[in-house]
Every structure is written in structure tokens, then in C-alpha cells.
Amino acid sequence: MDEGGVAVMVMQEMKRIFTSNEGILLTFIFTLIFIITNLVMVDFAGVQALITGQGQTPFFILILIVILAYLFKHSKIDLKGGRFLFLIIWNVYVLSIFISMIVNEDFVWTEALVLVMLSVMFLFRMPGGLLTIMVVSALISLPALLLQPILLNETGATFVLIYTAGLIFLPRHNKAMLYYSLPAFLLLMLITHSRTAIAVFMVVTIIQLSFINLYKREKKHQKNFLLTLLVSGLIPLIIFFQPLFRFFTIGGLGSEGIDWNQVTNGRYEPWMHVVDNMSWFGGGRDYIDFTSLLHVHNIFFDTLGRYGIITTVLFTVLVIGALIIALKSVRTFHLALYIFTFILIGMTEYNYLFMFVYFSPVILLFVIMSYLVDERRIIAEIE
Fold first, then answer.
1. Which sign does the torsion angle of CA 276, 350, 371, 170 carry?
2. Which pLDDT does position 285 carry in this prediction?
């Protein structure tokens, strides 16, 4: 099927979903939850003080109740093929977290409940309609980020992840990308100074434009696009090289060598602390002095520090495995792009479970992973 046919099918499916009472109700519920969690993330009106000690965990429980209710009604349990293998790895991963909690005398029942609920969710085939509703709800909730009292890295990272998720349904045309990406970039500049968010936004946008203009396009068009991309990238790079260099290195790269702690804005030292003190089952929630940090700003190092080597290896297998599955088909390319973006941002942020900050990007990751491990759907996509 050509791009036009796919676009028509997507629009028809979205029309069917958002003209039904159930679709409208679910969109309202998810949007409301995402708006509230965005306000918690930016600490609007000091709301974080009301849920100290719990993070976003109660909201994960709430949204998983809604998702499971939908799955019990509209889906069925599937334990075949790829999903069965995924469930084995996932449940071993969850078990390793439980063991780590017990070993460190740091068992958190609410977090354990979230992990069990996710395990139940993964038993079911994930309907594409639910994924659509959740992505649209996340997009609608983004203006809440403008209510942040100060500029935060987390708001920029959340924005870029939801922006990437929106590409799943965006028509594969340059004009659509122009109308989508330019306002998004302007809004990103208003809500954050995060180097990670800005750099990843550029990478995602270039990848999307390359996908539009290189995949199944005539050679002349491909050549013109690559030339345009090269020129449009080099000109601002040459003109603004010094300020861009200072912005992205923060003065940590010079004739005397590289100051990794400066370049990473203070992240390198806690990363090395985690590596130097790593163990099989981690150190629990107090694995590092969090006086000046909420986390060590890396999904892998945070997992390593709190839960240990075994859990970190399993977590890596799950995330990279989902990325590889998504890359098997062109039709799941944008799901792969989302997972890739999640990993990139996770290199300098802790955009995962059980924190005050990230919520909608994390729940979208799990829904996408559940959608991907439907072996029959992936086979159909490849064929």
C-alpha cells in the first residue's frame, strides 16, 4: 500500500475512534491524568509537596487501572511467540527488582504493585486504538508544561518524547512536517534550555525528514534532499559555531583536554560513583547522596545504582530488544524512533519509573512495547 493509502486508513481509524463515546471518554481521562502529572512534574503551585515520598506512582496505578479495564473489555490474553519470550524476560526483570528490594530492605509496595500491573498488561494484545488515544491525549496535555515556574530539563525532554510520538500519525509529507516541527521547535525554546532536549529534537527531525525524502523516492529527489540538508546544516553551523560549541560543551572541552564532569553538567562524577560501587543487587533508593540530585540522570546508571547489575542487564535487553523488533518493519519505524529517542534522552535524564518527573513518556513506552510484541501483527507488517 502506498503512503496515500496508509494516510487515508490512519485518518479513517482516528475518525472512528474519536467519534465514539468510549473514545472521547478515554481521551478525556488520559488527557486529564497527563495534564495533572505534567503539573506535578513542573511543581506548579508547589504541588509536589502534597505527594512527597510517592512520586508519580499513584498516577501510574490509576492509569494502569484504566488501561487494564479497557484491555479486559476489548482484548484477549496472548501467550504465543514473541510475547511469550518477552514475558519471560520481563518477569525475570521484575523478579530481580523484587529481590533487590528485599536484599536492601527497601521494599516499596506501591512500586511493586505498578510492576505487577504492568506484567498483567503485557499479557494482553495491545489494540492500536488505545495507542492512538494515548498519543493524542499526551499531545493535548503538552500546553500544561508552559505553567512551569522555572525552566526545567524535564519539560524539554518530555516535550521532545511526545513530539516524537506524534510522528507516528503524521502524514509522510514535507509540508506536514514543516507545520508540525517549526511551531514545536519554537515552543521547545520557550520551555527549556536543555542541551539534550534540543539536540535530540534536531536528530529526530532530521531522521523524520530523511525517512520522508529518502525511502522509496527517486534518485534525483534523494540527491536534492541530501544536498539541501547538507547546506542548511553547514551554514548555521559555520556562522554560529562558537556559541553552539560553548552551549553544548559548557566550556568543558578545550586545549587542556576534556573535563567530562563539566561537559555533562555535573553528571559524570555520580555516574562514576555508581560504577565504582556497583553490585549484583544495587544499593536501594539511597545508593547515592541525593542532597543536590533527584537522580543521577541516566536510566542505566540509575538502574545499576538502585537495583544492581542483574536488573540493569535485563532492562537493557528489554529496551534494545523492543528497538530491534520495531526496526523489522517500515510500518513500525516510528515506534522504533520513539524507543530510540527514549534511550537517547535516557543517557542524560532519568525518564523512567518512580520519580516526581516523567510520566506520559514512560507509560507510552510500555504501551508501545506491548503493541510491538504482538508477533502476528509484526509478521503482517513485514509481509
1. negative
2. 83
